[in-house]
Amino acid sequence: MDGDCKYPNKYEMLTRNTSNDFELLIHNISESDLNYNYTCTCGFIGCTKNLSVEPNHIMSLPSITQLIKDKKYINNDSMGIEIMLDKVNPVPSCSAWFQGRFINDATISVMKWYTYHNDVKVIYNFPVDSVGCEGRLQILCNLVYRNVSIFDEHIDICHEKEEGTLTMITISIGCAVVVMILICIILAKRREVLFIRRCWTNGKTKQSANINQDPLLTADTKKQEKERSPILNV
User: Fold this and answer.
1) Could you give the CA distance from residue 101 to residue 106 in angstroms, rounded to a whole number?
2) What is the mean pLDDT of residues 189-207?
3) Contact (CB, 8 A) for 84 and 121
4) Residue 98 — pLDDT band, cuts 50, 70, 90?
5) In the chain, what is the straight-line distance between the N-terminal and C-terminal CA atoms, in Å?
6) Transmembrane residues, as ranges (predicted)?
7) CA dist 213 to 114, 202, 222, Å?
């Protein structure tokens, strides 16, 4: 009112000497200053206007709140990276650069919408085999006319990849050994069963032979008794 304000560090009234126009200057403007009615009065003259801005006319630089980077987990020869960006506007387009060379684009997922900004997640799968496993990896996001770096690190996952390969080889060898042991056990069991069955068959064959020979022995014995009996009678 009349050039005075309760918050002079925040608001300032500007007047022009040659006209009755006056303006309101807002210092350190932020999202919290938008969509409010502002009134300037000078004597008996007052003016009230609402400060509103189209969302696509606002650029909000992101703040990185969460970075998920698992260098030890390589799936299908790629390393997964997830980065959460809060209060960014507009929704950026992000790309990856390795050793100063463009690789491919990252995937952008909008997690939450606000009036003047968005919370987004940047998902990137770094192709280890086709690019390399050691070097400087950058993820750059474009916001209208600015490029913002959200990831810039020297990575070295060659050892993790070799360890993963060795682990797979070890697991494969272990599985092969287990399979061979099971096959040996099955073959040994089968041989044991065949051996028992063969012994049982041979035993039955010998028993049958003994049974068939008994009548012959009995007949010969009776014949001998008959031949001897007359001599005994005489």
Assistant:
1) 15
2) 64
3) yes
4) very high
5) 170
6) 166-188
7) 106, 17, 15
The Cα–Cα gap between 52 and 100 comes to 41
Structure tokens at 37: 């009615």
- Cα distances from 147 to residues 56, 92, 104, 119, 194, in angstroms, run 17, 9, 16, 18, 78
pLDDT over 70 percentage in the chain? 68
Please state, in angstroms and rounded to a whole number, the distance separating the CA atoms of residues 193 and 200. 10
Tokens of 158: 């060659």
The torsion angles phi and psi of 43, rounded to 5 degrees, stand at: 70, -125
Task: Write out the two tokens for 135.
Answer: 């070097």
In the block, which residue shows the tokens 């009036």?
A: 115
**Where does the pLDDT of residue 232 fall: very low under 50, low under 70, confident under 90, or very high at 90 and above?**
very low
Residue 144: CB partners within 8 Å, gap ≥ 6?
59, 90
Both tokens of 200, joined, read 């049982």
Q: Which helix (H) or strand (E) holds 61?
A: none
How many residues does the structure list for the chain? 234
**Token couple for 209:** 């032979």
Q: Are 23 and 13 in contact (CB under 8 A)?
A: yes
pLDDT of residue 115: 85
28-75 tens-digit pLDDT:
888 888 888 988 777 787 788 898 888 888 888 888 776 766 544 566
More confident: 156 or 214: 156
Residue of 68, 113, 107 lying closest to 86 (CA atoms): 113
What is the C-alpha to C-alpha distance for residues 199 and 126, in angstroms, rounded to an integer?
A: 66
Distance (Å) of CA 88 to CA 98, 126, 143: 24, 24, 9
